[in-house]
Amino acid sequence: MRAILLGPPGAGKGTQAETIVKEFSIPHISTGDIFRQNIKQGTVLGKKAKEYMDQGLLVPDELTVELVKDRLLQDDCRNGFLLDGFPRTILQADALEDALKSMKQKLDFVVNIEVRKELLVERAVGRRVCSGCGQTYHMTFNKPKKEGICDNCGGELIQRKDDTEETVTKRINVYQEQTEPLIDYYTKKGIVINIDGEKPISEVGKDIVAKMRNK
Ligand code: AP5
Ligand code: MG
Ligand code: ZN
């Protein structure tokens, strides 16, 4: 299974990725997570990416494309992968297509999670992430058992730096301008699965798996 998760900030890509990668036993590749890991470790890439991420802007394609190409060549991607947050521009999509062609592979699905703009800010601003294991929660929609503490590992829950109302709004605009054209790009290839992302988390997950299994 080779698939992409598409959808605006806060649509539920990371949340649904957990279900999909378990179901199909494939690695979850989130470019946002890779950049955040690099920021945490203070790498050169992390320092460069941070300048853009903190402003809600896309990290330049030349920093992003090579990173993903290298990742797809790793052993665990041999039987498939789930990309989350990549591609985000037409240039990235073309680069992915070329890379897969040279690996004699092709994409099976693009899962497009649809959520109205009005709901996205509340989702992102209320999100909390475990500083230990990365598990995602929401202050209203997906609460941890104990406030501020991760159910899995007991780690402290923190807010992402780009989850302020102002930066989320910027990210949504950037999505509409630079990433939304990819829906058309992949619809023309006949591989898009549209998903109503406004249902409760578990229902969205069931819908995605059902559609990926049936097609
Ligand atoms: P990235 O980390 O990919 O952020 P994003 O695309 O803005 O998406 P989010 O992670 O904010 O949302 P999500 O859809 O994963 O939602 P989640 O499941 O967490 O990218 C961050 C930055 O990195 C970018 O701005 C850019 O700078 C850079 N970057 C990354 N990739 C790049 C690329 N390819 N090129 C260039 N730059 C790149 O859910 C959100 C919240 O809602 C959670 O609290 C969750 O619990 C809750 N929730 C989820 N589903 C539901 C539901 N059904 N009902 C109620 N609540 C729900
Ligand atoms: Mg995410
Ligand atoms: Zn944790």
Roughly how many Å apart are the termini? 12 Å
What can be said about the biggest beta sheet?
5 strands, parallel
Indicate the radius of gyration in whole angstroms. Answer: 17 Å
Shape: globular
How many domain units? 1
Bound molecules: BIS(adenosine)-5'-pentaphosphate, magnesium ion, zinc ion
Strand elements, count: 8
SS class: alpha/beta
CATH architecture: 3-Layer(aba) Sandwich
What is the helix content?
40-55%
CATH fold descriptor: Rossmann fold
For CATH, the homologous superfamily is named as P-loop containing nucleotide triphosphate hydrolases
Supply the number of helical segments. Answer: 9
Would you list the SSEs in sequence order as H and E? EHEHHHEHEHEEEHHEH
CATH class: Alpha Beta
What does this 3D model show about the protein?
With 215 residues, the protein is α/β, with parallel strands linked by helices. The protein has a single domain (2-116, 178-214), classed as P-loop containing nucleotide triphosphate hydrolases (Rossmann fold, 3-Layer(aba) Sandwich), CATH 3.40.50.300. The protein has helices at 13-24, 31-41, 44-53, 61-72, 90-102, 117-125, 165-179, 181-187, 201-214; strands at 2-6, 28-30, 81-84, 109-114, 127-130, 136-138, 157-158, 192-196. Helix 2 (31-41) packs across helix 3. Zinc ion is lined by residues 130, 132-133, 135, 150, 152-153, 155.
Brief summary:
The chain has 215 residues and is an alpha/beta fold. It contains nine helices and eight strands.
